Amino acid sequence: QVQLVESGGGLVQAGGSLRLSCAASGLASSNSYMGWFRQAPGKEREYVAAISWRGGTTYYVDSVKGRFTISRNNAKNTVYLQMNSLKPEDTADYYCAVQLFGAPSGNPASYKYWGQGTQVTVSS
Fold first, then answer.
1. Could you tell me which of 11, 43, 36, 32 has the C-alpha nearest to residue 22?
2. Contact 105, 98 (CB under 8 A)
3. 115 near 21, Cβ under 8 Å?
4. Counting beta carbons within 10 angstroms of the beta carbon of residue 12, is it exposed (0 to 12), middle (13 to 18) or buried (19 or more)?
5. Distance between CA 98 and CA 96 in Å, rounded?
6. Mean pLDDT across the chain, nearest whole number?
7. Which of 70, 74, 94, 105 gives 49 a disulfide partner, CB atoms 3.0 to 4.6 angstroms apart?
8. Rounded to whole angstroms, how far apart are CA atoms 45 and 67?
9. 72-106 confidence digits (pLDDT tens)
């Protein structure tokens, strides 16, 4: 049973930083990708970034490139999302998820397991 637990969300002023963590357990496939998504109230879930467990290749949506960094610690089975220069439009619930097979995808339907989410609020 795969379990994902996010932490690190909170309230921050515009321009500030937060680091989200996603601790994974029960994940056997080293070929999988870990993704971060976010969902603002009244909006669809949006892909943010992804990383491969094996090689550490990273992928980002254009709106966060240069501000967010996804990384992993294989020994701790944990993926991080370092978010700098935060903007009010980054306000959302942030979720980590696992894609078990195939090339990394920005489609939430490609991800099999999801965490419970952590809330990020950026004030102006």
1. 36
2. no
3. no
4. middle
5. 7
6. 93
7. 70
8. 20
9. 998 899 999 999 999 999 999 999 999 988 888 89
Reply yes or no on whether the pLDDT at 62 is more than 80: yes
Cβ 83 vs Cβ 120: under 8 Å:
yes
Q: Which residues contact 76 (CB under 8 A, 6 or more apart)?
A: 23
Q: What are phi and psi of 103, to 5 degrees?
A: -70, 150
Q: What SS3 string covers the chain?
A: CCEEEEECCEEEECCCCEEEEEEEECCCCCCCEEEEEEECCCCCCEEEEEEECCCCCEEECHHHCCCEEEEEEHHHCEEEEEECCCCHHHCEEEEEEEECCCCCCCCHHHCCEECCCEEEEEEC
Whether the per-residue pLDDT at 44 is higher than 70: the answer is yes
Locus of tokens 């550490």: 56
**What mean pLDDT is predicted for residues 98-120?**
92
